[in-house]
Amino acid sequence: xxxxxxxxxxxxxxxxxxxxxxxxxxxxxxxxxxxxxxxxxxxxxxxxxxxxxxxxxxxxxxxxxxxxxxxxxxx
Length: 75
Hints:
Elements: H1 5-16, H2 20-33, H3 36-50, H4 55-63
Helix pairs in contact: 1-2, 2-4
């Protein structure tokens, strides 16, 4: 049974959530590695799981994420 990268990232974040610096480091690394759709899912999950404890870290990390809309080639 294999797990997805997103599931792995969630597991890591839960394990390092005792340390704010380590949590932020791992979150930034995860944001760089995931595709935009996964980052959106991670963002929702992080705010649900850690929003009360690490709200400022979450805002700081996810503020740098920019989601671009894909433009379809016009004919």
